[in-house]
Amino acid sequence: RGILNNMSVGDRITVTFSYVPVDDELPRAAGVSCEAGGEGVAICDVAYDLAAVPSADLLALFMAPFISGMIVLAIGFVVLRFRYWDLDSFMVVVICMLLSIFMMGMFDAVTTHRYLQLWLVNGIVLGGALITFGMIFPAPLLIIYKNPGLRYVPTVLSIIVSIYVMATYQDENAGNVGVSKQIAEVSVIMGIAIMAALMGFYQRVRATTVLARDQANSVSLGVMLALAPTALWFFAGVAQELTGELLFPFSVEASML
């Protein structure tokens, strides 16, 4: 962090990294020079010319998520202003605030990592909040009626996972950063998927009033529309981690919006 603060567009930097050759073959990518090191590890250098962020990437990774996050945050404040006494509405406010932080933090999560720890914890807690919302809206599940304390289980689990991720993130192994990000992303996807399942297969089916059924249908529709691009984003990231190849020639982060 801060290494590039005093550098400008057009400056050249040299990055040195270690590499474990496969079958004793050094990488042959253009511009990469490697020398054999100790214990079967090669030491490689590659030079980059610093360039400005392309306008399309800036729009997809920063402007669109940031503006969308601000809109979601404003919706949360409106709900808080007019429905502050209602528990279900309070959960909507919490989800809006967590979602806004998650969306606005996307650019930092793929660039400076200045607030990455906050973004990771926020994503995990967001997944728990989505599951909790599916358990209590538009009506609490039968098991929640009988055991009210169960509504806090997703939150407790998300806190436990957050503690684990932070411990992993603090490890000196830089590869853990990718694992931590994937855990946060999986948490959001699981939260959306479980809430969609609860809304579609329980809340909508067991609704006792037309209003409750319409509410469940509306949430189900919105969640399903969000689930497809979010899953696309996650699987594209996993595929890139495993293969090193860009699966889609467009910004999958922007597809979440």
Helix/strand-derived category reads: mainly alpha
Count the beta strands: 3
**Residue-averaged pLDDT, rounded?**
80
Strand order across the biggest sheet?
1-3-2
Outline type: elongated
Q: Compute the gyration radius: what is it?
A: 22 Å
Unreliable segments (pLDDT under 50, ≥5 consecutive)? 249-257
The CA-CA distance between the termini, in Å, is: 28 Å
Strand content: 5-15%
How many DSSP helices?
A: 9
For the sheet with most strands, the description reads: 3 strands, antiparallel
Residue share in helix = 55-70%
Give the helices and strands as they follow along the chain: EEEHHHHHHHHH
Brief summary of the model shown:
The chain is mainly alpha-helical. It is 62% helix and 8% strand.
